Protein backbone atom coordinates (compact mmCIF):
# COMPACT_ATOMS: atom_id res chain seq x y z
CA UNK A 1 0.00 0.00 0.00
CA UNK A 2 1.23 3.47 -0.87
CA UNK A 3 1.71 5.05 2.59
CA UNK A 4 1.21 8.54 1.15
CA UNK A 5 -2.43 7.64 0.44
CA UNK A 6 -4.43 7.92 3.61
CA UNK A 7 -7.60 9.45 2.27
CA UNK A 8 -9.45 6.47 0.78
CA UNK A 9 -12.36 8.69 -0.24
CA UNK A 10 -10.18 9.84 -3.17
CA UNK A 11 -9.86 6.28 -4.44
CA UNK A 12 -12.63 5.48 -6.89
CA UNK A 13 -13.74 1.87 -7.06
CA UNK A 14 -16.06 0.61 -9.77
CA UNK A 15 -17.82 -2.65 -8.98
CA UNK A 16 -19.29 -4.29 -12.08
CA UNK A 17 -22.21 -6.57 -11.22
CA UNK A 18 -24.60 -6.05 -8.35
CA UNK A 19 -25.45 -9.59 -7.38
CA UNK A 20 -24.76 -10.77 -3.87
CA UNK A 21 -21.01 -10.67 -4.54
CA UNK A 22 -20.93 -7.11 -5.90
CA UNK A 23 -23.15 -5.86 -3.07
CA UNK A 24 -21.12 -7.69 -0.41
CA UNK A 25 -17.90 -6.17 -1.71
CA UNK A 26 -19.48 -2.71 -1.70
CA UNK A 27 -20.69 -3.30 1.88
CA UNK A 28 -17.25 -4.37 3.17
CA UNK A 29 -15.29 -1.73 1.25
CA UNK A 30 -17.66 1.04 2.32
CA UNK A 31 -16.27 0.63 5.87
CA UNK A 32 -12.91 1.87 4.57
CA UNK A 33 -14.38 5.04 3.09
CA UNK A 34 -13.65 4.41 -0.61
CA UNK A 35 -15.61 6.23 -3.31
CA UNK A 36 -17.67 3.30 -4.62
CA UNK A 37 -19.92 2.93 -7.66
CA UNK A 38 -21.91 -0.22 -8.35
CA UNK A 39 -23.15 -0.88 -11.90
CA UNK A 40 -25.65 -3.47 -13.06
CA UNK A 41 -28.11 -3.55 -15.91
CA UNK A 42 -30.29 -6.46 -14.87
CA UNK A 43 -29.94 -7.34 -11.22
CA UNK A 44 -33.52 -8.63 -10.86
CA UNK A 45 -32.69 -11.66 -12.98
CA UNK A 46 -29.32 -12.78 -11.69
CA UNK A 47 -28.42 -15.99 -9.92
CA UNK A 48 -28.46 -14.30 -6.49
CA UNK A 49 -32.21 -13.79 -6.85
CA UNK A 50 -32.66 -17.47 -7.73
CA UNK A 51 -30.69 -18.78 -4.74
CA UNK A 52 -32.19 -20.68 -1.84
CA UNK A 53 -29.86 -18.97 0.64
CA UNK A 54 -28.69 -22.05 2.50
CA UNK A 55 -25.44 -21.63 4.39
CA UNK A 56 -23.67 -24.96 4.65
CA UNK A 57 -20.36 -24.14 6.27
CA UNK A 58 -19.89 -26.66 9.05
CA UNK A 59 -21.31 -29.64 7.14
CA UNK A 60 -18.54 -29.30 4.57
CA UNK A 61 -16.58 -32.50 5.04
CA UNK A 62 -13.24 -31.59 3.47
CA UNK A 63 -11.44 -30.05 6.40
CA UNK A 64 -8.42 -28.56 4.69
CA UNK A 65 -7.55 -26.45 1.65
CA UNK A 66 -8.85 -23.19 0.21
CA UNK A 67 -12.55 -24.11 0.08
CA UNK A 68 -12.56 -25.04 3.73
CA UNK A 69 -10.62 -21.89 4.71
CA UNK A 70 -13.20 -19.72 2.89
CA UNK A 71 -16.05 -21.54 4.63
CA UNK A 72 -14.39 -21.12 8.01
CA UNK A 73 -13.96 -17.41 7.41
CA UNK A 74 -17.57 -17.02 6.28
CA UNK A 75 -18.87 -19.05 9.26
CA UNK A 76 -16.99 -16.61 11.50
CA UNK A 77 -18.19 -13.50 9.64
CA UNK A 78 -21.86 -14.31 8.97
CA UNK A 79 -23.04 -13.89 12.61
CA UNK A 80 -21.24 -10.51 12.73
CA UNK A 81 -22.79 -9.43 9.43
CA UNK A 82 -26.27 -10.45 10.62
CA UNK A 83 -25.85 -8.33 13.73
CA UNK A 84 -24.93 -5.25 11.67
CA UNK A 85 -27.53 -5.87 8.97
CA UNK A 86 -30.33 -6.35 11.50
CA UNK A 87 -29.84 -2.73 12.51
CA UNK A 88 -31.12 -1.87 9.05
CA UNK A 89 -33.79 -4.56 8.74
CA UNK A 90 -35.14 -6.50 11.70
CA UNK A 91 -36.72 -9.04 9.30
CA UNK A 92 -33.31 -10.41 8.39
CA UNK A 93 -32.87 -13.79 10.09
CA UNK A 94 -30.31 -16.57 10.11
CA UNK A 95 -32.65 -19.55 10.45
CA UNK A 96 -30.91 -22.47 12.12
CA UNK A 97 -30.33 -25.40 12.41
CA UNK A 98 -29.73 -27.33 9.20
CA UNK A 99 -30.72 -31.01 8.93
CA UNK A 100 -28.69 -33.24 6.61
CA UNK A 101 -30.54 -36.53 6.18
CA UNK A 102 -30.31 -39.70 4.14
CA UNK A 103 -31.88 -43.12 3.85
CA UNK A 104 -28.61 -44.62 2.64
CA UNK A 105 -26.98 -46.56 5.48
CA UNK A 106 -23.40 -46.10 4.22
CA UNK A 107 -23.90 -42.34 3.88
CA UNK A 108 -25.39 -42.20 7.36
CA UNK A 109 -22.34 -44.00 8.78
CA UNK A 110 -20.07 -41.45 7.08
CA UNK A 111 -22.10 -38.57 8.52
CA UNK A 112 -21.88 -40.11 12.01
CA UNK A 113 -18.10 -40.51 11.74
CA UNK A 114 -17.81 -36.94 10.46
CA UNK A 115 -19.86 -35.57 13.39
CA UNK A 116 -17.84 -37.61 15.89
CA UNK A 117 -14.55 -36.41 14.40
CA UNK A 118 -15.55 -32.76 14.73
CA UNK A 119 -16.90 -32.42 18.27
CA UNK A 120 -16.46 -28.63 18.36
CA UNK A 121 -18.69 -27.91 15.38
CA UNK A 122 -22.12 -28.36 16.97
CA UNK A 123 -23.00 -31.38 14.84
CA UNK A 124 -25.53 -33.77 16.35
CA UNK A 125 -26.24 -37.28 15.08
CA UNK A 126 -29.92 -38.27 14.84
CA UNK A 127 -31.08 -41.82 14.21
CA UNK A 128 -34.29 -42.73 12.37
CA UNK A 129 -36.38 -43.52 15.43
CA UNK A 130 -35.28 -40.39 17.30
CA UNK A 131 -38.29 -38.28 18.39
CA UNK A 132 -36.68 -35.26 16.65
CA UNK A 133 -37.23 -36.99 13.31
CA UNK A 134 -40.81 -38.15 14.02
CA UNK A 135 -42.57 -35.52 11.96
CA UNK A 136 -39.98 -35.65 9.16
CA UNK A 137 -40.31 -39.41 8.79
CA UNK A 138 -44.08 -39.04 8.88
CA UNK A 139 -44.09 -36.52 6.02
CA UNK A 140 -41.50 -38.50 4.02
CA UNK A 141 -43.37 -41.77 4.62
CA UNK A 142 -41.46 -45.03 4.75
CA UNK A 143 -38.02 -43.59 4.04
CA UNK A 144 -36.38 -43.98 7.48
CA UNK A 145 -34.37 -40.80 7.20
CA UNK A 146 -31.49 -40.19 9.60
CA UNK A 147 -28.38 -38.03 9.65
CA UNK A 148 -26.96 -35.00 11.40
CA UNK A 149 -28.20 -31.66 12.66
CA UNK A 150 -25.76 -28.81 12.15
CA UNK A 151 -26.64 -26.19 14.74
CA UNK A 152 -24.47 -23.46 13.21
CA UNK A 153 -25.64 -23.86 9.60
CA UNK A 154 -28.99 -22.69 8.24
CA UNK A 155 -30.54 -20.21 5.87
CA UNK A 156 -30.83 -16.52 5.11
CA UNK A 157 -33.59 -15.47 2.73
CA UNK A 158 -31.71 -14.09 -0.33
CA UNK A 159 -34.57 -11.69 -1.09
CA UNK A 160 -34.46 -10.17 2.41
CA UNK A 161 -30.66 -10.12 2.32
CA UNK A 162 -30.58 -8.27 -1.01
CA UNK A 163 -33.22 -5.78 0.19
CA UNK A 164 -31.22 -5.17 3.37
CA UNK A 165 -27.92 -4.68 1.56
CA UNK A 166 -29.66 -2.19 -0.75
CA UNK A 167 -30.74 -0.16 2.29
CA UNK A 168 -27.25 -0.31 3.82
CA UNK A 169 -25.52 0.70 0.59
CA UNK A 170 -27.90 3.62 0.14
CA UNK A 171 -27.24 4.80 3.68
CA UNK A 172 -23.51 4.68 2.97
CA UNK A 173 -23.88 6.80 -0.17
CA UNK A 174 -22.71 4.08 -2.54
CA UNK A 175 -23.60 5.21 -6.05
CA UNK A 176 -25.63 2.75 -8.10
CA UNK A 177 -26.03 2.88 -11.86
CA UNK A 178 -28.63 0.85 -13.72
CA UNK A 179 -26.67 0.17 -16.90
CA UNK A 180 -24.27 -2.22 -18.58
CA UNK A 181 -20.52 -1.86 -18.84
CA UNK A 182 -19.52 -2.74 -22.40
CA UNK A 183 -15.77 -2.08 -22.26
CA UNK A 184 -12.99 -1.50 -19.75
CA UNK A 185 -9.64 -0.04 -20.65
CA UNK A 186 -6.59 1.10 -18.71
CA UNK A 187 -5.19 4.48 -19.70
CA UNK A 188 -2.14 5.56 -17.74
CA UNK A 189 -3.01 4.73 -14.14
CA UNK A 190 -6.78 4.86 -14.39
CA UNK A 191 -9.49 2.54 -15.64
CA UNK A 192 -12.00 3.85 -18.18
CA UNK A 193 -15.23 1.85 -18.16
CA UNK A 194 -17.72 2.53 -20.91
CA UNK A 195 -21.45 2.26 -20.26
CA UNK A 196 -23.90 1.11 -22.93
CA UNK A 197 -25.13 4.70 -23.03
CA UNK A 198 -21.65 5.84 -24.02
CA UNK A 199 -20.79 7.54 -20.74
CA UNK A 200 -17.30 6.80 -19.35
CA UNK A 201 -16.68 6.06 -15.67
CA UNK A 202 -13.13 6.66 -14.48
CA UNK A 203 -11.78 4.77 -11.49
CA UNK A 204 -8.52 3.70 -9.90
CA UNK A 205 -9.86 0.21 -9.28
CA UNK A 206 -12.32 -2.06 -11.09
CA UNK A 207 -13.75 -5.17 -9.42
CA UNK A 208 -15.37 -7.64 -11.78
CA UNK A 209 -18.33 -9.24 -9.97
CA UNK A 210 -20.31 -9.98 -13.09
CA UNK A 211 -20.12 -13.76 -13.09
CA UNK A 212 -19.80 -15.32 -16.59
CA UNK A 213 -19.85 -11.93 -18.33
CA UNK A 214 -16.54 -10.97 -16.71
CA UNK A 215 -14.97 -12.83 -19.64
CA UNK A 216 -16.52 -10.37 -22.10
CA UNK A 217 -14.67 -7.44 -20.51
CA UNK A 218 -11.19 -8.96 -20.31
CA UNK A 219 -9.09 -11.16 -22.52
CA UNK A 220 -9.62 -14.61 -20.96
CA UNK A 221 -6.63 -16.08 -22.87
CA UNK A 222 -4.29 -13.43 -21.46
CA UNK A 223 -5.21 -14.39 -17.88
CA UNK A 224 -5.94 -18.05 -18.64
CA UNK A 225 -9.44 -17.96 -17.22
CA UNK A 226 -12.24 -20.30 -18.20
CA UNK A 227 -15.80 -20.19 -16.86
CA UNK A 228 -18.74 -22.36 -17.83
CA UNK A 229 -22.45 -21.79 -17.20
CA UNK A 230 -24.31 -24.04 -14.76
CA UNK A 231 -28.09 -23.65 -14.65
CA UNK A 232 -29.78 -24.28 -11.32
CA UNK A 233 -33.54 -24.83 -11.26
CA UNK A 234 -35.74 -24.74 -8.16
CA UNK A 235 -39.45 -25.34 -7.58
CA UNK A 236 -42.12 -24.47 -5.09
CA UNK A 237 -44.57 -27.29 -4.39
CA UNK A 238 -48.02 -26.87 -2.91
CA UNK A 239 -49.50 -29.81 -1.08
CA UNK A 240 -53.26 -29.50 -1.43
CA UNK A 241 -54.05 -32.42 0.88
CA UNK A 242 -56.25 -31.32 3.77
CA UNK A 243 -54.00 -32.26 6.66
CA UNK A 244 -50.71 -31.21 5.10
CA UNK A 245 -48.37 -29.81 7.74
CA UNK A 246 -44.98 -28.83 6.40
CA UNK A 247 -44.62 -26.47 9.35
CA UNK A 248 -43.81 -29.49 11.51
CA UNK A 249 -40.64 -29.90 9.41
CA UNK A 250 -37.41 -28.02 10.18
CA UNK A 251 -37.08 -24.79 8.19
CA UNK A 252 -34.03 -25.98 6.28
CA UNK A 253 -33.10 -29.51 5.36
CA UNK A 254 -31.15 -31.53 2.89
CA UNK A 255 -32.33 -35.00 1.96
CA UNK A 256 -30.10 -37.24 -0.16
CA UNK A 257 -28.40 -34.13 -1.59
CA UNK A 258 -31.51 -32.05 -2.35
CA UNK A 259 -32.24 -28.90 -0.37
CA UNK A 260 -35.70 -28.22 1.02
CA UNK A 261 -37.07 -25.07 2.60
CA UNK A 262 -40.35 -25.00 4.47
CA UNK A 263 -42.41 -21.96 3.51
CA UNK A 264 -45.83 -22.68 5.09
CA UNK A 265 -47.98 -25.64 6.11
CA UNK A 266 -48.70 -26.30 2.44
CA UNK A 267 -45.64 -24.97 0.61
CA UNK A 268 -42.09 -26.22 0.32
CA UNK A 269 -39.20 -25.22 -1.95
CA UNK A 270 -36.87 -27.82 -3.47
CA UNK A 271 -33.58 -27.09 -5.26
CA UNK A 272 -31.51 -27.24 -7.16
CA UNK A 273 -30.36 -28.87 -10.40
CA UNK A 274 -26.87 -28.67 -11.93
CA UNK A 275 -27.16 -28.32 -15.70
CA UNK A 276 -24.09 -27.47 -17.74
CA UNK A 277 -25.93 -25.22 -20.12
CA UNK A 278 -27.37 -21.71 -20.56
CA UNK A 279 -30.99 -22.90 -20.63
CA UNK A 280 -33.01 -24.90 -18.10
CA UNK A 281 -34.32 -28.25 -19.33
CA UNK A 282 -37.52 -30.00 -18.27
CA UNK A 283 -35.66 -33.30 -18.08
CA UNK A 284 -33.50 -32.13 -15.14
CA UNK A 285 -36.53 -31.05 -13.13
CA UNK A 286 -37.23 -34.75 -12.47
CA UNK A 287 -34.14 -34.82 -10.21
CA UNK A 288 -36.01 -32.58 -7.78
CA UNK A 289 -38.67 -35.29 -7.34
CA UNK A 290 -36.57 -38.43 -7.49
CA UNK A 291 -34.27 -38.24 -4.51
CA UNK A 292 -36.13 -40.75 -2.33
CA UNK A 293 -36.68 -44.49 -2.60
CA UNK A 294 -40.32 -44.12 -1.64
CA UNK A 295 -41.90 -40.97 -2.89
CA UNK A 296 -44.76 -39.44 -0.87
CA UNK A 297 -47.85 -38.51 -2.96
CA UNK A 298 -47.37 -34.78 -2.56
CA UNK A 299 -43.84 -34.95 -4.04
CA UNK A 300 -45.12 -34.74 -7.56
CA UNK A 301 -44.46 -32.50 -10.57
CA UNK A 302 -48.16 -31.75 -10.88
CA UNK A 303 -47.95 -29.90 -7.55
CA UNK A 304 -45.45 -27.31 -8.83
CA UNK A 305 -46.86 -23.84 -8.21
CA UNK A 306 -43.73 -21.88 -9.09
CA UNK A 307 -40.44 -22.65 -10.76
CA UNK A 308 -37.40 -20.57 -11.54
CA UNK A 309 -33.73 -20.85 -12.39
CA UNK A 310 -30.45 -18.98 -12.21
CA UNK A 311 -27.22 -19.28 -14.16
CA UNK A 312 -24.10 -19.76 -12.06
CA UNK A 313 -20.52 -19.64 -13.34
CA UNK A 314 -18.09 -22.45 -12.65
CA UNK A 315 -14.34 -22.13 -13.22
CA UNK A 316 -12.74 -24.76 -15.42
CA UNK A 317 -9.41 -26.21 -14.39
CA UNK A 318 -9.39 -24.57 -10.97
CA UNK A 319 -11.52 -24.35 -7.86
CA UNK A 320 -14.51 -22.09 -7.27
CA UNK A 321 -14.57 -19.11 -6.78
CA UNK A 322 -12.01 -17.10 -8.77
CA UNK A 323 -10.46 -14.45 -6.55
CA UNK A 324 -7.61 -12.89 -8.50
CA UNK A 325 -5.71 -9.70 -9.02
CA UNK A 326 -5.44 -9.63 -12.81
CA UNK A 327 -3.29 -6.53 -13.00
CA UNK A 328 -2.82 -3.30 -11.10
CA UNK A 329 -6.27 -1.92 -10.31
CA UNK A 330 -8.18 -4.90 -11.72
CA UNK A 331 -9.64 -7.57 -9.44
CA UNK A 332 -11.71 -10.58 -10.46
CA UNK A 333 -14.31 -11.92 -8.02
CA UNK A 334 -16.31 -14.40 -10.03
CA UNK A 335 -16.89 -18.11 -10.68
CA UNK A 336 -19.25 -18.52 -7.73
CA UNK A 337 -20.74 -21.83 -8.48
CA UNK A 338 -22.86 -23.25 -5.69
CA UNK A 339 -22.18 -21.30 -2.55
CA UNK A 340 -22.03 -17.63 -3.43
CA UNK A 341 -24.28 -16.56 -0.57
CA UNK A 342 -22.35 -18.63 1.95
CA UNK A 343 -18.96 -17.40 0.72
CA UNK A 344 -19.84 -13.72 0.19
CA UNK A 345 -18.40 -12.44 3.54
CA UNK A 346 -15.14 -14.42 3.21
CA UNK A 347 -14.65 -13.29 -0.38
CA UNK A 348 -15.31 -9.64 0.30
CA UNK A 349 -12.90 -9.90 3.22
CA UNK A 350 -10.32 -11.23 0.74
CA UNK A 351 -11.03 -8.32 -1.62
CA UNK A 352 -10.68 -5.73 1.16
CA UNK A 353 -7.25 -7.18 2.06
CA UNK A 354 -6.14 -7.64 -1.55
CA UNK A 355 -7.07 -4.09 -2.48
CA UNK A 356 -4.24 -2.79 -0.28
CA UNK A 357 -1.81 -4.12 -2.92
CA UNK A 358 -3.50 -1.95 -5.54
CA UNK A 359 -3.29 1.43 -3.79
C1 LIG B 1 -31.36 -22.31 -7.94
C2 LIG B 1 -30.15 -21.83 -7.19
C3 LIG B 1 -30.03 -22.10 -5.83
C4 LIG B 1 -28.91 -21.65 -5.12
N1 LIG B 1 -28.86 -21.86 -3.78
C5 LIG B 1 -27.82 -21.39 -3.08
C6 LIG B 1 -27.77 -21.56 -1.68
O1 LIG B 1 -28.68 -22.16 -1.10
N2 LIG B 1 -26.71 -21.06 -0.99
C7 LIG B 1 -25.70 -20.40 -1.62
O2 LIG B 1 -24.76 -19.97 -0.94
N3 LIG B 1 -25.70 -20.22 -2.96
C8 LIG B 1 -26.73 -20.71 -3.69
N4 LIG B 1 -26.76 -20.53 -5.04
C9 LIG B 1 -25.59 -19.95 -5.69
C10 LIG B 1 -25.62 -18.44 -5.63
O3 LIG B 1 -26.86 -17.98 -6.11
C11 LIG B 1 -24.49 -17.85 -6.47
O4 LIG B 1 -23.28 -18.45 -6.13
C12 LIG B 1 -24.38 -16.35 -6.24
O5 LIG B 1 -25.65 -15.75 -6.38
C13 LIG B 1 -23.40 -15.71 -7.21
O6 LIG B 1 -23.51 -14.31 -7.06
P1 LIG B 1 -22.83 -13.31 -8.06
O7 LIG B 1 -23.04 -11.95 -7.50
O8 LIG B 1 -21.44 -13.76 -8.37
O9 LIG B 1 -23.62 -13.51 -9.46
P2 LIG B 1 -25.02 -12.93 -9.94
O10 LIG B 1 -26.02 -12.91 -8.85
O11 LIG B 1 -25.37 -13.70 -11.16
O12 LIG B 1 -24.70 -11.42 -10.31
C14 LIG B 1 -23.91 -11.04 -11.40
C15 LIG B 1 -24.45 -9.70 -11.87
O13 LIG B 1 -23.58 -9.14 -12.85
C16 LIG B 1 -24.40 -8.35 -13.72
N5 LIG B 1 -23.64 -8.07 -14.95
C17 LIG B 1 -23.17 -8.97 -15.84
N6 LIG B 1 -22.47 -8.33 -16.80
C18 LIG B 1 -22.54 -7.00 -16.52
C19 LIG B 1 -22.03 -5.84 -17.17
N7 LIG B 1 -21.29 -5.94 -18.29
N8 LIG B 1 -22.28 -4.63 -16.62
C20 LIG B 1 -23.00 -4.52 -15.45
N9 LIG B 1 -23.50 -5.60 -14.80
C21 LIG B 1 -23.28 -6.83 -15.34
C22 LIG B 1 -25.64 -9.22 -13.92
O14 LIG B 1 -26.74 -8.45 -14.38
C23 LIG B 1 -25.84 -9.78 -12.52
O15 LIG B 1 -26.77 -9.02 -11.76
C24 LIG B 1 -27.86 -20.95 -5.80
C25 LIG B 1 -27.98 -20.69 -7.16
C26 LIG B 1 -29.11 -21.12 -7.86
C27 LIG B 1 -29.22 -20.81 -9.32
Plain-language structure description:
- With 359 residues, the protein is of the alpha/beta class.
- It folds into 2 domains: 8-89 and 157-226 and 317-358, FAD/NAD(P)-binding domain, CATH 3.50.50; 98-151 and 228-315, D-Amino Acid Oxidase, subunit A, domain 2 (D-Amino Acid Oxidase, Chain A, domain 2), CATH 3.30.9.
- It has helices at 20-30, 47-50, 66-86, 105-117, 134-139, 158-171, 214-217, 220-223, 282-285, 340-354; strands at 12-16, 35-40, 54-55, 98-102, 123-126, 146-150, 154-155, 175-178, 181-187, 190-195, 200-203, 205-208, 227-238, 252-255, 258-262, 267-271, 304-315, 322-327, 330-334.
- The strands form 4 sheets. Strands 5-6-4-14-15-16-13-17 form an 8-stranded mixed β-sheet.
- Strand 10 and strand 11 form a beta hairpin.
- Helix 3 (66-86) crosses helix 10 (340-354).
- The longest helix is centred in the first third of the chain and has 21 residues, at 66-86.
- The termini are close together.
- Flavin-adenine dinucleotide is lined by residues 16-22, 39-43, 46-48, 50-54, 180-181, 209-211, 213, 232, 234, 271-272, 310, 312, 336, 338-342.
Ligand kinds: flavin-adenine dinucleotide
Number of helices: 10
Major beta sheet summary: 8 strands, mixed
Write the CATH fold name of the largest domain: FAD/NAD(P)-binding domain
Quick one: overall form?
Answer: elongated
Amino acid sequence: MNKAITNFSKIRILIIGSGIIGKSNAFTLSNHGFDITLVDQNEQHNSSNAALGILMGKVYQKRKGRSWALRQKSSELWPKWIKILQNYNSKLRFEKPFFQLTNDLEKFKKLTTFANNNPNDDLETVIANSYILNSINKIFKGNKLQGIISHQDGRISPRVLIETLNVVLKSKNIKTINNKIIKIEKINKSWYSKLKTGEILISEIVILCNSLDALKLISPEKYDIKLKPVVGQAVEITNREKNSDFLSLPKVLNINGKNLITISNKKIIIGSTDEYNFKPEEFYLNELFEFLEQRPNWLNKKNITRKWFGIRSRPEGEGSPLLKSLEKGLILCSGFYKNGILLAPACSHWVSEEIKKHI
